[in-house]
Amino acid sequence: MRTKIKNAWILTMNGNMDEYPCGEIVFDEKQILYVGEKSEIQAEVEIDAKGGIVLPGMVNTHSHASMIPFRSLQDDCPDRLRRFLIPLENGAMNEELAVLSFKYAVVEMLMSGITCFADMYYYVDKLAQACDEMGIRAILGETVYYEPTCDAKEAYGGLELGKKYMDSWGKHPLVTLTLAPHATNTNEGTIFQKAMEIVKEHNTILMTHAAEMDYEMKYFKETYKLSPIEWLDSLGCLNDHTLLAHCILANEKDLVLIQEKNAGVSHCISSNMKAGKGIAPLKEMVAKGIPVGLGTDGPSSGNTLELFSSMRLVAQSQKTKHHDRALFPAKEIVKLATIEGARSLRLDKQIGSLEVGKQADLICVSVDAPNMFPMYDAYSALVYSACSHDVKDVFVAGKHLVKDFQPIVNRKKIREELSTSMNDFRRIAKEIEKSL
Ligand SMILES: [Zn+2]
């Protein structure tokens, strides 16, 4: 079905950063057919954006969508991951909860204008089915971990499990399965190498947490006299199939390596700042041309699964860190949330900008709310004034998944089902909290 959106302030995010303050875009399920001032192409559906901003769907480059039940639990607990999150995950996570949480998270992301995301979790075959049902674009990595996990009885069981899922899932227009060794300090080198081999065979990306934790840096320095990034490189695991989440503690030498090997980075500002871990060297990464996208991280880490607050935090943290108001103009920030995110996931040929022939993954941000008036510069409005509740319409591959602020799925039902399935989780969380 062909759709036309008219009377829109269109930000194409193409190579020239073309924009049309009163433009039209026409698309179908296969591709974008027209972007510009006015189209003669007829469409079955016409939407009047009433001056709203149309831009490519946002790309969330790092998340753990199934962790919704953990949101707002022990947010201020020191060393929360090792003391609280992992014991709770091992004790309370199961397939049903992972899938219901994931569906809830997909609704939240779609409603906030995220049309594509990269996720690391468990039971990814079931999560892939949920994506297929709900119509969102995703790369889902089965987590590989040095201890048994909720879906693997043996240490590193995720490797075989993930490979099996990848083989049986095959090619899908929207959903790709892959492997995600949890972090540099929670996997052996040989596991990373095996995972990279499988990832290359399937031409996907390997996702991992890297240069994120103080104790991770200390461990690599003491054990190998290397940084985690240098260690990954020494294994042959730093290349254009690698997506590194965080890189907060990457030094200049690491950044040169990431640049030379053409690896991608996911910058998770909201999660990093909440945990007090530091501000990643984003200015230096971007100056080197490293593909960097924005990530929400899991709902227990960044709490909200939207990129509006991340865009603002990225701009504010970098300007503050470098004492430079002119650094990262709003236009550059919107690039990180769209085309650069797509580039970091190696999906920039299909999505990330509004260009004829590309997939119609796009959103319309309403300017009706009080915070959106007046609007002189659409990029500034998106970064500094807008919030996720201003997202009015969302399309993935031309399909209208959020219509007039509401998802096409029954979100109340999804929430009720999730809440019911959280009873055991709530009890176990309380028990672990008592032991902290
Ligand atoms: Zn993460």
- The share of residues in helices is 25-40%
Low-pLDDT sequence parts: none
- Helix count, per DSSP? 16
Bound molecules: zinc ion
Strand content bin: 15-25%
The tally of structural domains comes to 2
- Oligomer type: single chain
Average pLDDT works out at 97
- CATH H-level superfamily title of the largest domain: Metal-dependent hydrolases
User: Describe the biggest sheet?
Assistant: 9 strands, mixed
- How many strand units? 17
CATH top level label of the largest domain = Alpha Beta
What is the CATH topology classification name of the largest domain?
TIM Barrel
Distance between the termini: 55 Å
CATH architecture of the largest domain: Alpha-Beta Barrel
How much is the radius of gyration in Å? 21 Å
What would the principal axes of the Cα set say about the shape?
globular
